[in-house]
Amino acid sequence: MDHIKEEDNKIIAKIRDFNLKHTFDCGQCFRWNEQEDGSYIGVAHGKVLHIYEDEDTITFLNTNMTDFQNIWIDYFDFNRDYGAIKDKLTKDDNIMAQAVEHGCGIRILNQDEWETIISFIISARNFIPRIKKSVELISEKYGRFIEEYNGKKYYAFPTPEELYNKPEEELKNLNVGYRAKYIQSTTFIVKENQVDVYKLENLDREMAKKNLLRLMGVGPKVADCILLFSMRKYKAFPIDVWVKRVMEYFYFKDGATNNQIQEFAKEKYEDLGGFAQQYMFYYARELNIGK
DNA sequence: CACCAGGTAATTC
DNA sequence: GAATTACATGGT
């Protein structure tokens, strides 16, 4: 990332290995929406951001240099060298080379822990358009109003306090079905400080995961997503139906258990498991494997 | 009308 | 403990 400059209410920067569609549509986040002109508007960390892309020149609207430095560089992981990651992953692996080519502009976002927990609880046995809708509904109903931008009102994701003590029947209006009671229970546990979700990042991956698994609706796969997308545990390799299918398709002709795939990923990708998973997930969806 | 969707909790063996 | 089964909701 270089040539950062600020013009009124706008940041312009040249950023390598960053593509809006790849980053926002690769399944890691639910609050970014493509606009008619191809730009994206999203909410994160209580701010509304609008982004335009023209090859490697990226324009950030509705922000300033202070927020860019303090929030967005870290959120978008701009200080990490994704070129080096891709080189390492694709060395001696033709399949990964194709996956990386397809998802060349993916960056793993550093999202809010609490928002990521609730979002991925909702994601279980669900599908992405509905997950996005539910997260939007939760924010509109319980979150703090941020501002009106381009004629639309934007709301922050509600804090544990704001989501606390809501009747299950009310939560069901969020289109989350049977997950309403998971949200209710998890909010209770977090609000009562039985799990301090903002300190888990400081624990090692296994210990952080162990704590996450105490939350209702959080199993091994959802926990791995939370670790990877909000707690910087880049060895985490979440295995869902897509990742399982694509890994079996390319590397296990006779099928494999999740444990076998985990061991394989640990061995093959070492410290880069999370990045590898995201390239493979996005590639699997593109290939529509299993359909 | 079955079957499925970024799995997990509850139940059963 | 390891294997089944139920689970909301909306779309094909």
UniProtKB/TrEMBL annotation:
BP-aspect Gene Ontology terms: base-excision repair; nucleotide-excision repair
Pfam families linked to this entry: HhH-GPD, OGG_N
Domain HhH-GPD: residue ranges: 122-285
Enzyme Commission no: 4.2.99.18
Keyword Kinase: no
Keyword Hydrolase in record: yes
Recorded catalytic activity of this chain's protein: 2'-deoxyribonucleotide-(2'-deoxyribose 5'-phosphate)-2'-deoxyribonucleotide-DNA = a 3'-end 2'-deoxyribonucleotide-(2,3-dehydro-2,3-deoxyribose 5'-phosphate)-DNA + a 5'-end 5'-phospho-2'-deoxyribonucleoside-DNA + H(+)
Alphabetical keyword list: DNA damage, DNA repair, Glycosidase, Hydrolase, Lyase, Multifunctional enzyme
GO molecular function: class I DNA-(apurinic or apyrimidinic site) endonuclease activity; damaged DNA binding; oxidized purine nucleobase lesion DNA N-glycosylase activity
Family annotation (PANTHER family): 8-OXOGUANINE DNA GLYCOSYLASE, N-GLYCOSYLASE_DNA LYASE
UniProt family annotation: Belongs to the type-1 OGG1 family.
Protein name in the entry: DNA-(apurinic or apyrimidinic site) lyase
Higher taxonomy: Bacteria, Bacillati, Bacillota, Clostridia, Peptostreptococcales
